[in-house]
Amino acid sequence: MMTHSALEVVHAVSNAYPEITHALSKAGAALAHRAMRIRVKDMNWQICGENLTIRFSLISGAYATSVLNEFLIDEGEKPVNPKNLPRMNMT
Fold first, then answer.
1. Residues 6+ away with beta carbon under 8 Å from 56
2. What digits encode the pLDDT tens for the residues 25-41?
3. Whole-angstrom Cα distance, residue 30 to residue 74?
4. What is the predicted pLDDT for the residue at 88?
5. Structure pTM?
6. How many angstroms separate the CA atoms of 28 and 25, rounded?
7. Is the dihedral angle over the CA atoms 46, 48, 49, 50 positive or is it negative?
8. Would the pLDDT of 72 be above 50?
9. Alpha helices, DSSP H, located in the chain
10. How far apart are CA 18 and CA 37, in angstroms?
11. Helix, strand or coil, per DSSP, at residue 17
12. What are the boundaries of each domain within the chain?
């Protein structure tokens, strides 16, 4: 298995699509990254009747919806779009 640093991947994509890279740069788009893996801390859950309450802590910049999406993915299915889910109370 071959691995690349994030910077190597960015350079490879930028070099493959110079027109798009130039247009994004000209438009003022800034390069930004998010972690592909998120460390979840202090996770616990409770079932009360038909309700499931999940609590956990994330580092700053991580999205709780990314973690919850992992619970909803069935092998072989496309990831769930969080916008299509019922509204959840996240505290």
1. 40, 41, 42, 43, 44, 64, 67
2. 999 988 777 777 888 99
3. 34
4. 53
5. 0.48
6. 5
7. negative
8. yes
9. 6-16, 18-26, 64-72
10. 29
11. coil
12. 1-33, 41-84
Q: How confident is the model at residue 75 (pLDDT cuts 50, 70, 90)?
A: low
* 86: confidence class by pLDDT, cuts 50, 70, 90: low
Q: CA torsion sign, 64 to 65 to 67 to 71?
A: positive
Letter for the amino acid at 25?
A: S
Let me know how long the chain is.
91
Predicted confidence at residue 1, as pLDDT, reads 44
Spell 67-91 as b/e; 16+ CB within 10 A means b: ebeeeeeeeeeeebeeeeeeeeeee
What is the DSSP secondary structure assignment for residue 52, as one 8-state letter?
E
Q: Check: CB of residue 6 under 8 Å from CB of residue 35.
A: no
